[in-house]
Amino acid sequence: MPEEIKPNVNEASTEDAKLAAEEIASGEAKAPSVDMEADYQAAQQFSVSEVDRTGKGEKAVQDATVPEYQMPEAEQKKTEAQPTGDPADFQAMAQDIGSSNQAVTNVSDDLVQEALKKGQSK
Q1: Where is the composition biased (Polar residues) (predicted)?
Q2: Please, which residues bridge with residue 4 across strands?
Q3: Are 25 and 7 in contact (CB under 8 A)?
Q4: 105 in any annotated domain
Q5: Which of 15, 44, 79, 105 has a 20 to 30 A CA-CA distance from 111?
Q6: What separation in angstroms does the CA of 107 have from each of 79, 94, 104, 118?
Q7: Full domain range(s) for residue 53
Q8: Is residue 114 part of a domain?
Q9: CA distances from 73 to 27, 76, 103, 112 (A)
Q10: Is residue 106 part of a domain?
């Protein structure tokens, strides 16, 4: 259902807008009407391009998004900690895990002591 626009001369931001509002108020010009439903339906026609309505659109998307390089599948490595109670075993296990992820790990005694101090309640 069309809605009629009623301009206010005092709210016009430019001279052209003021002139148009005055002409509509005096009856010299017809007030524009807005049909929201018709505008919405027209917008739906533009929301999908012509190429997307055919099979070419899907192929174009696949061609554009295919990775340039093939990534190798990740392999899982199972690491099991033996309950020895020796901190050196834990450090060795951490280094094994760090090297398997190709991450740079540097666990020193000073770093471990600092972490222990920060973990203590005051």
Answers
A1: 97-106
A2: 33
A3: yes
A4: no
A5: 79
A6: 18, 9, 10, 16
A7: 3-65
A8: no
A9: 74, 10, 18, 34
A10: no
pTM: 0.28
Query: What residues have CB less than 8 Å from 30, skipping those under 6 apart?
Result: 24
Nearest C-alpha neighbor of 89 from the set 61, 97, 103, 21: 97
Instruction: List per-residue pLDDT tens for the chain, 122 residues long.
Output: 566 667 777 887 888 888 888 888 888 888 888 888 988 988 888 877 777 777 788 888 888 888 777 778 888 888 776 677 778 877 887 787 766 555 555 677 887 888 788 777 76
Max CA separation in the chain (angstroms): 96
Domains contained in the chain, number: 1
